[in-house]
Every structure is written in structure tokens, then in C-alpha cells.
Design a protein that fits this description.
The complex is a heterodimer of chains A (about 190) and B (about 220).
Chain A lengths: L1 H48 L12 E5 L2 E10 L2 E12 L4 E9 L4 E9 L13 H4 L26 H28 L2
Antiparallel strand pairs in A: 1-2, 2-3, 3-4, 4-5
Chain B lengths: L1 H9 L6 H5 L3 H6 L4 H24 L9 H23 L1 H7 L10 H9 L6 H31 L1 E2 L2 E2 L14 H25 L25
Antiparallel strand pairs in B: 1-2
Classes of the chains: A alpha+beta (about 190), B mainly alpha (about 220).
């Protein structure tokens, strides 16, 4: 009986200590990890969807509150004027969520481009949504009716990767709806 | 001091983890496609192994024998999560490369093996020496294997060109099958060399890798040692 109690006590204490110290470490490294993810995951995507800016979109990022959800917007500013803006959204893919960075040109209300940030799609099949042939179709596209051809739009899906293509397009549509509802607030965001 | 050096140095050759103990082969096969990755994984293992040996050795008298494995796993798992967080915070590209293999350090047999076979029976200083030695040996082996595969597979080691012009890279070496082939060939060479050495000393040749059985004593080949 004593033995069992001792076992339980020792194991609980070790697990308790492990849990506490990991929580502390997690809290301490959180801001640094966020910074690293921005630099290594989001920054390359932001560079492909925004262009012609003279600011640092990552340093100037701003969080907007959207009915309880936080959306981080990355602005492209030239000569003090907001040119375009990018958000990251995600859509359901074949192997999990597909993260998509979507850029909007605020003057012409068109997409300035999309870039894939994270995905777990099948290599060589689903991953082709990140390639030029697919993503360039969104560049300069109007923000209305961003749909695959099958749904009556004009985006060509990647052959053999319908789910990945649909997921990516869904993420873009999500970004469009965020853009529409944020549009007014965006203009005042960076002045 | 002598004892410390002995425990440290046995991991460098005599009990070299992947090639002599043949432990922890999953990362050995998986992350050695480049020398960089091998070294990164090795450094993570040095860190986890040394600290887990230290902690296990410190609490070795408090842990009841029946739940020791659970306690060792709890300790090494926490250390691995710590490494993962630190790696994300300070070396994100390395984390992206190593990905799933970092969490897998938890179930790397070397960590549990050293905790069970050495740290739980020896004082902290010796345990640290043992962990450091084994870790360095593991990192060396991974870097060597990584360099070999990267060199043959791409013609570069650590990103610098190492081959003569006209060399045709064997792309196969950096793919998964290349890992098995190169590990097998290396083990073969090491076993052959070991048997040549044993014959010279007048000892009987053995099958399979040899290591210091004092540090495990569990295997069936103990009589050959």
C-alpha cells in the first residue's frame, strides 16, 4: 500500500514539475516564435502578393477585430498612401488546412496575388496549387465571383487536385469577405 | 577525472551509439540527407541526452523501481518539448527542416537506454559525462553520415562543392533508400574492421556490432565480450 502511494506521489510530482516548467517556457518563447513564423513563413508569401511598396509590411502589420476574431493585416504603403493589403486565411485541403496569403489592391478592388503559406497536401499533386500556373490566375482578378470553373467561375483547378484547388479558392473567398467588411476601417488604419 | 574521461570517451568510439550500440536508428536514417540536418539533430540530442541523464541521476534514489520508465519518459519528453520551443524561437529554419523528427527524440532509444542503463545507477557527474559523450558520438555519426550522403548525392557538403568537375551526383543517396544502403555499408565496414582487429589479438571473430557490455549486459551476445 505504501509502495503504491509513493509511486503515485513521485510520478505526480515529476509530471507536475514538468508541466509547470513547460508552461513557463512556452509563455517566455511565445512572442519570439510568433516573430520567427512571421519572418520565415509569412514574409516570403507577403513579398509575392504585395509589390511596389516602400514600407515594411511586417513591421506595420495591424490587428483588426472582426466580431471576436482577430485578423492581422499587412499593408503595402507607398509615399504614405495605402496601396494594397494582405491577410492570411485558410481553407480545408486534402491533408489539413491550407494557409493562403491573399493580397488586395485597395484602389482598384482587385486581388494583387495569392501565396500559399502552409499546407500538408500530397507532394507532387496537391502541392501544385502553390505553383505559378495556379496562383497567377488570381493576380488582377476582380473580387467578385472568385470561383473554380466547375462552380461557374473562371479559375482553372489543378488537374487531379480538386480538393486542394477548392480549399485554396475557399480561402481566397474568405479573405474577400474579410476585405469587404474591413474596407472602410482599412483606409483609416495607416494614416 | 580519469573515470569521467572514460565515461565520456566510450560514446565517441567504443560504444558509438548508431554504429556500435545500433540504437536510435530512426533519426539516423531519416534526417541525414544533408550534413546540416544531421548536425542539427545531433546537437538537439546532445542537449536532451545530457540534461535527461543529469535529471534522472539526480532523482534516481527517489524513483520507485516500478514506475521508473514512466518517470524517465516524463523527464525526456519535457526536455524534448523544451528543445522544440527553443528551436522554434531561435532557429526556425532548422525546425522547419527537422519537423516531425524533433518530437520523435522522446522515443529515441538512446535517451531511455542511457537513463535506464547508466544514469539511474551512477552519480550525476558521471551521468553527465556519459550523456555528453554519447550525444557527441551520436552527433558525429549523424554529421558523418549526412556529409557522406550529401556529398555523394548532390556533390556538396555543408553547401560547398567537394567533387571534381564532371562528377555525376547519385540522387538516390539523398533519398530514403540511400539512407539504408549507406548505413548498411558503414556498419559492414565497421564490423569488418572490428573482426580484423579481434583476430590480430587472437580473439574469436563475432557477428554483429560489438560494444561494451558492461553498459548494458542485457543482450544475448554478452558471452562474446
Amino acid at each position: 500500500m505504501n509502495d503504491i502511494l509513493k509511486m503515485m506521489a513521485v510520478l505526480s510530482i515529476i509530471c507536475g514539475l514538468a508541466g509547470t516548467s513547460l508552461t513557463a517556457l512556452k509563455q517566455a518563447t511565445e512572442p519570439m516564435i510568433e516573430e520567427q513564423v512571421l519572418t520565415y513563413v509569412q514574409a516570403p508569401a507577403i513579398k509575392t502578393v504585395l509589390s511596389g511598396y516602400d514600407n515594411d509590411p511586417i513591421k506595420d502589420r495591424k490587428d483588426f477585430d472582426m466580431g471576436g476574431r482577430t485578423v492581422t493585416a499587412f499593408p503595402a504603403i507607398k509615399d504614405g498612401r495605402l496601396m494594397s493589403v494582405a491577410f492570411e486565411t485558410s481553407g480545408k485541403g486534402y491533408g489539413g488546412d491550407i494557409g493562403v496569403m491573399v493580397g488586395f489592391d485597395v484602389n482598384s478592388d482587385t486581388l494583387s496575388g495569392i501565396g500559399i503559406t502552409t499546407m500538408k497536401e500530397t507532394p507532387g499533386v496537391g502541392t501544385r496549387v502553390a505553383e505559378h500556373g495556379f496562383t497567377t490566375q488570381f493576380k488582377g482578378h476582380g473580387i467578385e465571383s472568385v470561383e473554380l470553373k466547375k462552380q461557374g467561375g473562371d479559375i482553372d483547378a489543378v488537374a487531379g487536385a480538386t480538393i486542394s484547388s477548392t480549399g485554396t479558392t475557399a480561402a481566397v473567398q474568405k479573405a474577400v469577405s474579410i476585405y469587404k467588411s474591413l474596407k472602410q476601417r482599412l483606409a483609416d488604419g495607416w494614416t | 577525472m580519469n573515470r569521467l574521461w572514460k565515461e565520456f570517451s566510450k560514446g565517441l568510439w567504443k560504444d558509438l551509439p548508431p554504429f556500435k550500440l545500433v540504437l536510435g536508428l530512426c533519426p539516423v536514417l531519416a534526417v541525414t540527407n544533408t550534413a546540416d540536418n544531421g548536425l542539427g539533430m545531433g546537437v538537439a540530442v546532445i542537449f536532451v541526452l545530457t540534461l535527461s541523464n543529469l535529471l534522472v541521476s539526480l532523482v534516481r534514489k527517489l524513483i520507485p523501481a516500478k514506475v521508473r520508465i514512466a518517470c524517465f519518459i516524463a523527464i525526456s519528453a519535457s526536455l524534448v518539448v523544451a528543445v522544440e520551443l527553443l528551436m522554434q524561437a531561435f532557429a526556425y529554419p532548422l525546425y522547419q527542416q527537422l519537423g516531425i523528427f524533433v518530437p520523435l527524440i522522446v522515443v529515441n532509444c538512446i535517451i531511455l537506454g542511457r537513463a535506464e542503463a547508466f544514469a539511474s545507477k551512477n552519480p550525476p557527474l558521471l551521468a553527465v559525462a556519459d550523456g555528453l559523450g554519447m550525444g557527441v558520438g551520436f552527433a558525429m555519426s549523424l554529421t558523418f553520415l549526412g556529409a557522406l550522403r550529401e556529398g555523394l548525392g548532390t556533390g556538396h557538403i555543408f553547401g560547398t562543392n567537394v567533387v571534381w568537375p564532371g562528377f555525376e551526383p547519385l540522387g538516390f543517396m539523398v533519398e530514403a533508400p540511400g539512407a539504408f544502403v549507406s548505413l548498411g555499408v558503414l556498419l559492414c565496414i565497421m564490423n569488418f574492421a572490428e573482426n580484423v582487429r579481434r583476430r590480430r589479438k587472437g580473439l574469436r571473430a563475432v557477428e554483429g556490432p560489438t560494444h561494451d557490455c558492461g553498459s548494458c549486459g542485457a543482450c544475448g551476445s554478452a558471452s562474446n565480450c
